[in-house]
Amino acid sequence: MRGLGARLVPLLAVAATPALGQEGVIPALRFGLERARGPQDVALTLQIVFLLTVLTLAPAILLLLTSFTRIVVVLSFLRNALGTQAMPPNQVLVGLALFLTFFIMAPTWNSVYSDALRPYLDGQLPQAQALERAKPPVQSFLLAHTREKDIALFVRLSKGPRPRTPQEVSMAALIPAFVISELRTAFTIGFLVYIPFVIIDIVVASVLMSMGMFMLPPMMVSLPFKLIFFVLVDGWHLIVGSLARSFLE
């Protein structure tokens, strides 16, 4: 009986599948390629390809056009200065950097949504005009946090006409200039973050050497002092607040 039941279960499942399909429980999914019947079909295909390309480049856009780069680099410097190895984990640091980026970039994204994306979705603007309207808020944010020296570097390298106003700077030159400016700022902040923790390491190492405790690693002794120092000065509040104010003020 047990063997008969084991053979009946697959048969019942196969027999029940058409019935489920007829009742609409299991949806049908079909993919196919058809010859384009006109320019509209070709345009729709190109739009789908463009959308897939944008989704593929979304992580790079997030890294290069927002405050994410500065935030995540500074948080990485902070963890290395504390000497806590993998604490906080990378997932926590990246998650904090992402939500800080959403908070900082909210005014810019709201402008893009109200001026370009919403009218485009409502059918009030064509795609090309929507892209033109989305450019000024993003360009203003990038120009506000990019050094003129870095912009001039990429303008010279492009060998194009010299822009007469900041708004005439091409995005191809502005984006890499913004990235290296952000890296320079992040490294400057990282240097300032390192200073108090390096002082603690030097003091602890000097005390251990004076006591003749050469076999005891200084990092093992200095880590609790660095942690309690960071907690007493409310380090997370200071670091996160400074990063947010560096963009919003």
Low-pLDDT stretches are 1-24
- Dominant shape: elongated
Structural class: mainly alpha
| Beta fraction | under 5%
Q: Note the total helix count.
A: 9
Mean pLDDT: 75
Characterize the largest beta sheet: strand count, sense, and whether it forms a barrel: none
**Rg over alpha carbons:** 28 Å
N-to-C series of helices and strands: HHHHHHHHH
By DSSP, the count of extended strands is: 0
Q: Indicate the percent of residues in helices.
A: over 70%
Q: Distance N terminus to C terminus?
A: 78 Å
Outline the structure in words.
- This protein is an all-alpha fold and 249 residues long.
- Helix content is 78%, strand content 0%.
- It contains nine helices and no strands.
- It has helices spanning 2-23, 39-64, 68-82, 90-121, 127-144, 148-158, 171-210, 218-232, 235-248.
- Helix 4 packs across helix 5 (127-144).
- The radius of gyration is 28 Å and the shape is elongated.
- The model is unreliable at 1-24 (pLDDT under 50).
TL;DR of this structure?
The protein is built from nine helices and no strands. With 249 residues, it is mostly helical.
How do the helices and strands line up, and which of them pair or pack?
Blueprint: H1 2-23, H2 39-64, H3 68-82, H4 90-121, H5 127-144, H6 148-158, H7 171-210, H8 218-232, H9 235-248
Keywords:
249 residues; mainly alpha; 9 helices; 78% helix
